[in-house]
Design a protein that fits this description.
Among the domains are: 48 residues; 153 residues, Up-down Bundle (Four Helix Bundle (Hemerythrin (Met), subunit A)), CATH 1.20.120.450. α7 runs parallel beside α8. Strands 2-1-3 form a three-stranded antiparallel sheet, with no helix packed on it. It is built from ten helices and six strands; from the N terminus they run ααααβββαααβααββα. It is globular and about 55 Å long. With 291 residues, the protein is mainly alpha-helical. A hairpin with a 6-residue loop joins β1 and β2. Bound molecules: zinc ion.
Length: 291
């Protein structure tokens, strides 16, 4: 596929998007969704990740290009905040880059609270497409979220079943995480989730301080078996705690520096997806150390 010249690949992508939009407009959403999926798949397959050392230059070039196109100055400002944070190796605050939405009808882009209607096409904000900081924030229903939370410890346990402690402490390569550190991270996050839920259930709009990824200093002395038990116990308590809360309580919220207002339901969905995201990493680490 990517042996095609660049221009042709771009043309093909645009054809897929045009078909998707037209089919949607003509009332064939089930056909449209296939073209949207194909377009998204093509974008993922034909783009490569930018090397960390090239990120700053590429961001600068993208910002210059948008400036030349007379993009919204507020958007340019937000993009610069992103570039700045990377240079300073720090998380980006929600106040620097607020929520972002795109009008599905005309493509207009909105930062922060959207206006009551799109100035270009009068579409209403509930129809806009919001881009979340990560797919982890897409919500499930409370019962789906509870099933995901309750079933995760068994999946983590199964992924490491039969490995020795030595194998689990072994790094597959100097840059990669060991199985031990991944399980440690998952267990640590469960405790963080439990703490945040308790805060949101008992305090009015608490502050949920962000924790940098891997800020939890790994304690290699704790055997994985023990980490798994701790994780499971804490998770069971969390599930029991959430099992009987009301619909309104799922919507209780706190303020997170990086993500803004966050509800209990969003937080639960985030953690449930986040820990699942580490399973392929555990499996890969296991394969590489021959466990
Ligand atoms: Zn619009």
């Amino acid at each position: 596929m990517d042996t095609l010249p660049r221009g042709e690949r771009y043309e093909r992508l645009m054809r897929l998007v045009s078909l998707a939009r037209s089919l949607e407009a003509q009332g064939y959403p089930n056909a449209a969704k296939l073209y949207w999926a194909l377009a998204h798949s093509q974008q993922l397959r034909e783009s490569r990740q930018v090397a960390p050392c090239e990120l700053d230059n590429k961001m600068a070039a993208a910002i210059d290009c948008l400036k030349a196109d007379n993009a919204d100055p507020q958007l340019i400002e937000a993009l610069k905040h992103g570039r700045q944070a990377l240079a300073e190796k720090r998380p980006i605050r929600h106040t620097e880059i607020p929520s972002v939405r795109v009008c599905r009808t005309c493509g207009e882009i909105f930062l922060g609270d959207p206006p009551p209607r799109c100035p270009e096409c009068a579409a209403r904000p509930i129809t806009f497409l919001e881009f979340l900081p990560m797919y982890h924030w897409e919500t499930l229903t409370p019962s789906q979220a509870l099933v995901a939370l309750a079933s995760a410890p068994d999946e983590v346990r199964a992924a490491v079943q039969g490995m020795s402690e030595e194998q689990m402490l072994q790094k597959p390569d100097p840059e990669a995480a060991s199985v031990h550190s991944l399980v440690f991270h998952i267990a640590f996050d469960q405790e963080l989730l439990a703490e945040r839920i308790e805060k949101m259930l008992t305090q009015p709009y608490p502050q949920l301080e962000g924790v940098a990824a891997w800020a939890d200093a790994e304690d290699e002395q704790i055997p994985v078996q023990q980490l798994l038990e701790r994780y499971q116990r804490s998770r069971e308590e969390t599930v029991r705690r959430l099992m009987h809360i009301s619909y309104e309580d799922w919507q209780r919220s706190g303020w997170h520096n990086e993500f803004g207002r966050v509800t209990i339901l969003q937080q639960v969905c985030y953690f449930a997806r986040h820990e699942r995201g580490h399973l392929p990493q555990i499996e890969e680490a296991r394969r590489l150390v021959g466990g």
